[in-house]
Specification:
This protein is of the alpha/beta class and 317 residues long. The protein folds into two domains: 2-221, no CATH class; 247-314, no CATH class. The chain is built from 15 helices and seven strands. The chain has helices at 2-9, 12-20, 22-29, 31-34, 47-54, 94-109, 156-161, 165-178, 183-199, 204-217, 222-239, 247-272, 277-284, 288-297, 304-314, and strands at 44-45, 64-71, 77-85, 113-119, 130-134, 139-143, 145-148. The strands form two sheets. It has a five-stranded mixed sheet with strand order 1-2-3-4-7. Helix 8 runs antiparallel to helix 9. The radius of gyration is 26 Å and the shape is elongated. This is DUF4351 domain-containing protein. Residues 253-311 form the DUF4351 domain.
Length: 317
Amino acid sequence: MTEERERADQDSPWKEILEAYFPQAMQFFFPQTAALINWEIPHEFLDKEFQQIARDAEQGRRYADKLVKVWQHQGEEIWLLIHIEIQAKPEELFPERMFSYTLRIFDRFAKPAISVAILCDADPKWRPNQYSYNYPDTRLNFEFGTVKLLDYQNRWTELEASDNPFATVVMAHLKTQQTSKKPTERKTWKFSLIRRLYEQGLQEKDIRNLYRFIDWVMMLPKALEAEFWQDFKQFEQERTMAYITTGERIGYERGITEGEQNIVVRLLQKRFGELPQETKAKIQTLSLNQLEELGEALLDFTAIEDLLNWLETHQQD
């Protein structure tokens, strides 16, 4: 599962979905803070400002952090520090890091930041929400808001009934955790969650955005991934909707097709010797389904003419 761990370490899917649906994220996870904000005024991601305060911070694992400027209903500006703790294991220094980032923002920009964190780990007991110290003449108690995704396990019906995109995000995250050693079950849930996007009647853009997140976090072994796409193609054909044609899917299918091409060419050359370049070129134009058909048909070929006739017939389809 090394590839899965490497992929899970990346914060890009979380950052992508947070940028695409930031108001919905705040309304879903931190409704009290969201209620302070006038969402009619566009929010602004302060990536350059955050890079300035995080540049000297502890290096190592990457985090999905966002610094966002929003406006209150009274017209005052607020800065929000949004942190997504993706690590699978609790981190002892996490509260200190939250305090450090908030302090750096205030020190450099003279802006108090509302600091909140989304905890994605699987330890029900780890619930950091403050950093403090206490001496006779000096004391500090810094508190920050947290949401524990694990808690939504007991709110599954609520997630299913929600039309907020982050309900889908949480469902995908939880099912990824629960199926870490159950790939077949993960395939079933991946299909179910993507199908749910269509059943909700979402717009194509939203289906694509949420599909990318689900596809990224709910990674499958190659054989099951191929089965998943066959099932999903059939589902799309039945609904006469073909929304999921993103670069990720195209790239994946291209890889499968090229692998199938290599297998078919090797089998044919084992039977008939080196194939003419023109014949190889024709094989490269076949779809994945046609390659699978050729892989079955070549078992009955007795001469290379059978292959040429087959290619001529099927390239006219």
